[in-house]
Fold this sequence. Notes:
Layout: H1 2-10, H2 13-34, E1 37-45, E2 47-49, H3 52-55, E3 59-63, E4 69-77, H4 78-81, E5 89-94, E6 107-115, E7 123-126, E8 130-150, E9 157-165, E10 168-174, H5 175-178, E11 183-189, E12 197-201, E13 204-206, E14 212-213, E15 219-220, E16 225-241, E17 251-259, E18 262-267, H6 269-273, E19 278-280, E20 294-299, H7 301-305, E21 310-311, E22 318-327, E23 329-336, E24 340-343, E25 349-353, E26 357-364, H8 366-369, E27 378-382, E28 389-394, E29 396-398, E30 405-406, E31 411-418, H9 419-432, H10 442-461
Parallel strand pairs: 2-5, 8-11, 16-19, 24-27
Antiparallel strand pairs: 1-4, 3-8, 4-7, 5-6, 6-8, 8-10, 9-16, 10-15, 11-13, 12-16, 13-14, 16-18, 17-22, 18-21, 20-22, 23-26, 25-31, 26-30, 27-29, 28-31
Amino acid sequence: MLKKMMKHLVNNPGLKVLSLLLSVILWMVVVKMADPDANKSFSVSVEILNKNVITEMGKVPGVVGNSDIAMFSITGPRSYVEKMSSDDFKVTADLSQLDLNQDGDVKLVPIEITAKKNEKWITIMQRTVNLQITLEDLSEKKFVITPEVVGTPAEGCAIGAVEVVPNLLTISGPESIVSRISRVSAAINVDGVSSDVTDNVVPTLYDKDEKVIASDLLEMNQGFVIIKAKILGTKSVPIHCQVSGTPAEGYEYRGLEYAPETVLLKGEASLLNSINAINIPEDVINIDGMREDTNVDIDLNPYLAEVGLSLVDETANRVAVRVLIEEKETKEFTLPVERINVAGLKEDHELTYSGTSVKISVRALKEDMDTLQTADINAALDVSELAAGVHTLQLNVTLPSNKFEVAGVVNVQITIEDKNAELEDDSEEDQEDGNGPGAPSRDEEEQGEQGGNNRDNRDENN
Length: 462
């Protein structure tokens, strides 16, 4: 029975073809189930070909809107579609196909999209069909290329001089595009580097809003430039500030407050090793006559330039200094005259004061004044050159430390008497009373008188 069936199938060509078709259909169904279709969209810049067709006319093409960005999608087996990227497509517009007889200022150039791989398995559906251009006058402009760095050097290192060679770029193209260019830069990556680095880079064009300008319609005289970055050592050093002058009388300088107190320098190792601090000369901050706190702003750059160094953060070159000035308070002390040390008083002289005490005004900061007592104040007079009489002298006052000062002049009135002169005066008074040398005393006179009286009485009795 089985042999008859096999013989029947083998000898029947129609059944053979039908079996083959059924196998193919079954395989396709299985494949579709295992790898279903997928869809993916793309936006790719249009590459403009044969621009010389327009430039030979003395014109350049100008793109209208965003028509130089082709929008399209693809469909196909998911295993192929999902692996496709923008780089897998070639999107071109050939200006040799431009019809100059088109009406209007806007001309249409067909956009062609081809897949670089998997072309058999995918289907491309274009949404942007034509590149829209206008014919514009050619514009040319020169730009200085600004060097930029990306990333942070290795620890303990800083970026030194960065230069671009050549640093001048000539750009030509449609006036509508060239006029939008605000600046041109070239960037170098220094992330993690500890030594000088060099790279070849393509200049980047920016508009006034810092948006990148990229167009195939622009021509540059340099396709790439060389950018070099020097890597320097760093060192953190303190800032030392000094002052000159003296504040107004009755005021005291209390010190300085400033920020930053330290800065990070960069430079060659030999120069960094030679500096331990940034010393601001004392004449920069002059406090002569100051009566209140004062702010001073100091630029560090001149002092760094002298030693060939610079700041890691170039914006941190200003030091904000605050000079602290405090007014002293005045307090009056009463010093007994017994506390005055008198020097040079002669042995035959005697000194007396016009009062029992003197007033001494002392100036000091409040915190110091609270510690001062009358017992801490010493005073002295030197009368060695003075003759007898009344004198007004300046008292020499000594205070415990230079934290205190005498406010004004302390004068004291004294009287010096000559003891010998007093004895002479007493003698003169005695002489005026008849008691000079050789004269009898009053008792003797009285005795003489009584003796005379007695003699008279004896004579009368006889």
